Structures are given as structure tokens and as C-alpha cells.
């Protein structure tokens, strides 16, 4: 990313007077528009007409309207094709654009002065790319480009506020870049982990102390699962990390004190570096807490799944501070076709490699080659309202494609109740009223959903704690997590949940969500949350997310967050896959249709809520609710269920 110094120099040099676009726009129609001023970006001068832009036009894919039909065909327990997952080749072929789409867009470009010799195509011809000047691009899209400066980092991007396409072309184009993509500076970890006072390495094991420090013994007793006993090569579990680095010396200490089956001290995850992702074996300041998230994820998962393999997907070079879109560069590394899917990564939104920053990753963007795990656990998310709808839809479809291939994807639902954490101080942010937005607003009152846990093709995980707090017991059950911060209410921790403003209600959860809205209707009007009854709702499930035993820099902490509950669920799904593989069956893949069809396999959580945005949020109720989802796992019932399926 270029600095604000460069930006100032650009303004000093580009003194040409700018003329408005001269394209014949009588048949142009609006294609995309940014609603309002972007959060934390300030519009500066008009972009210089001679500056080159790497223009990418994403072509409309075939058969995406059948996405839910396809995914349910292989994941609905009532389907005769349950478990018959697709090959990567079949996925690519089914969703390839129609020839008339590619030809129609190419013909328009030629007629607009973008000669065919300048066009390049992706593998599968999913997008058309060419370099064009700002002047050419403004005429092509009937728009105006400006420099935008980021208020915190000083970085700049070139973007427009809206753009247009000829009416006969619009039906063939998903979206074009660079255009309105600005928001979502970076994925935000769900929680800057709350560190309880360090406890002794020993003395808090056993079942009597679970509400003070939750160990693998507590989890096994509560959710009734046993230790892992298989290590099938095809059943690795993957965890993605971005801003955190695993400090390996903590693992042997954790294994020695907090696992009930022997784990060799030299056990480490398989390291998968993506676009310069680094290990922690270098000079790094861990004093500020960087590393706690990774420690929590890996120690929790290892205690559940060992001897099954665990993979660390370390994404990004740690230098590229303009690292929005890192879920995309993760997906690029898994699937070479995704690098170019629907236009590929967004210039000025997704990070570019080689990284020009000092010490940055100097290799090219990784495109394929990373191994694909059966289960992925992610403790990061972004704010739904801060990203273009087209951008979210594009990525959601890729999670769907992984589900078609037998991969289970789990995302933490967030730690701010019905609010969200966006800014550098991790304070909660909400949205303005839809009459003037919705825009991200730290003082807003409208509930703020998260992405990608709003995507209907992933499993979103909320958090619970023992009912009774520090005096709770395993026998006493669970409630929705409640961990207010007495020093700053904006840092209170509650299970993230709510209703998307982007994605519709999937059929697999329609009955459960309708039951909640009908039987226990929240008393909030439509300007507070999407109460249409037709929106994707989350979370889907929950697990304990408070005081999980974690060793960090040779101290033991009780760590909280849906960042804790998500690797618990990832580990449990890995055990379920292990049981299926032992019976000669394949991995589960997309979980939700089966989970929603069998609510009896869950501990129903009916106490607690998820306040935020100046409200009490939603309440946990009998059945599914937007606080804890279906509830927490009853492993024997889940295992019997999934072993009964093909």
C-alpha cells in the first residue's frame, strides 16, 4: 500500500483539469452504487485521467440460481444423494459462464474502444481483464473516479461512488472492479481476548473447577465425546489465522497439563504458508497479546482431535496493513479457479502481491496448491454493511462450492451481541437507520450483522457459559454467554447473532426461524433489525465460549470468545468424520441441513441474551434463537445420526 506521502505527491503532480465522462449514456443504467460516505475513508481529488487501472469485469456465472438446490442435494439427510459430493472439475463446469455472456461483454468492450487484443481471460473464461486509463474507464462505466485516503493508515485507493452499464450488457455482468469497493479495511478478530488473571499451571483440572477454568475434561463430560482414536490422512482439520501467530513453545506445556491422553511434546500443526504467512519463530512482540487467539484455537482443537492431524493456514505476510479481503486470498490458495472466479480478487480491496512494503512478501499471489481440509474453523469476521453486496455474494458462493466438495466450514458468530467490532479500538459499532443508510456508526442503534457468518452455506457458532457463572456446574447446564466489561460497556462480550440484510432465509432453517419469530417475536421495529422473516439468521449452533484453558507465554489463562466455541465445534465435527471414515463413509460436508432437521441432538439453551446497539438484543428461547442457535452438541446423538446416513 502506498503511503499518504505518495498521495500528496500525486495531488501535486496531477494538475490537469478534468472533464466529465463523454460516453454516450442514453442507454446506461445504474449497476452498483455505494450508499453514503464510506466509513473511515475521505474522498480527495479526481483521479488523473492518464493513470492506468487494472479493470476486471466479472461475468455472470451459470446455474448460481440453483446453488441451494445443488447443496441440499448432497447435504440434506432426506436426499438420496446425501454424501455424494462433487469433484472440483464438476463444480467448475457447472458454474462456468454461458458463451453468450462472454461474447456479449467482449463485443461491448470492442465497440467502446477496448480492442480485443487488450482482453485477457481467466481459466474457464470467468472474467475479462484489461488495463485502461482512468479516462477510458470513466467513459466505459459512465462514472467519475477519485482518490480516497484512509483516515487511519493514510493509504489510498482509486474508486467511484457508482457506475453504470448499458442495459443490454448489465444482465451479463456480475460486477466490475475497481469501482465502489472501499469498505472493510481488514477482517476483525471477533475478540481481543479477555485474559483472566493467570492461574497456576496445575490445580484447576478435574470436573469441580469447570466454571473457573474449562478444560478438555469439562468439555468431554458436558458434550459426551471421547478422545480421538484415528488419524486418517484424509481427515485433517484446518484453522485459518491472520493477525495472530502461534507461539510453539506453549504447546508442550499445554499438552502436559491440560490433555488427558498423552500428546508428544514435539507435536505441532502442519504449517501452510499462504502469501508469505510466517511462523512465530522470529522476533515478534507477543507482549500485546498477539498470539493468544492462535493459542486458543490450536490448543482447544488439539485436545479434542489428537491424534488426528491439525493444519495451520497462516495467511498474509504480516506487513501488508491494507489486508482486507483475506478470506479471499485464503480461498485463492485452496482453489486456483477462485483466483479468477467472478472477476478474481478486487483491486484496491484485496491485498496485492508482491507486497511493496518494506519487509513484505515479494512472491506472487498464491493461486492453488494448498491442501484442502475436511473441516475449517475461523475465528474472524467482517461487518456486513461495510462490504459491497456483490463482494459478499461472490465469496459466499465459494463456501458453497467447498460444501459441494465435502468440506465443513465453521465461522465464529462474533462477540458483540447484535452489534459488531469494527474500529482499531475494538469498540462496538452498530448501524444507522435504513432511511439514511444503513451505514456503520459507532453511535448507531440498528443491529449490525457480520460476514461471512451471514452466508447460508457456512455453519455459524455462538457461545455459552455455565449457568450460574463461576458457581456453575456441568450438571447445571448452560446459558448464553454474558461477560460485561465494568470499565467500558462497548467492550461487553455477548454471543453474536441476528438477521442478515444481504442473504435470504435458506429453506433448511425456515421452519426453525419462523417458529422463533412467531412464538417469541422480538419487540423491535423494522428500522432496528431485518424483521421480514425472510432473512438468513445466525448463529446455527453454540458451544462453551468462556474461560477455556489456554497456555500463553508459559501462563495459564481462561480465554473467552466465540473464538473458543468455534474450534470446539470444529473438533467435534472432525470426530464425527473420523467415525464415518472408520465405517467406510465419506466426510459430512455442509452440516446445516442435517443439524436443523434434528434439534433433538442439541442441548437447548433458553437463558440469556445478546445485548448491543443500546438494546437488550435478542433472548434465548426454546428451540432455535438468534443468540445460541439450535444449542450445544450432544455428541452421542450426533454420532448416531451421522453414522446412520450414507
UniProtKB/TrEMBL annotation:
Subcellular localization, as worded in the UniProt entry: Secreted, Extracellular space
Record keyword Oxidoreductase present: no
Main location: secreted
InterPro entries per UniProt: Peptidase_S8/S53_dom_sf, S53_propep, Sedolisin_dom, Tripeptidyl-peptidase_I
Cofactor note text: Binds 1 Ca(2+) ion per subunit.
Any one GO biological process: proteolysis
GO molecular function (one): metal ion binding
Keyword Cell division among UniProt keywords: no
Classification via Gene3D superfamilies: Peptidase S8/S53 domain
PROSITE patterns membership: SEDOLISIN (PS51695)
Keywords tagged on the record: Calcium, Hydrolase, Metal-binding, Protease, Serine protease, Signal, Zymogen
Coiled coil: none
GO cellular component, one term: extracellular region
Catalytic residues of the enzyme: 293 (charge relay system), 297 (charge relay system), 563 (charge relay system)
Signal peptide: 1-19
PANTHER family: PROTEASE S8 TRIPEPTIDYL PEPTIDASE I CLN2, SERINE PROTEASE AORO, PUTATIVE (AFU_ORTHOLOGUE AFUA_6G10250)-RELATED
Protein name per its UniProtKB record: Related to tripeptidyl-peptidase 1
Lineage: Eukaryota, Fungi, Dikarya, Ascomycota, Pezizomycotina
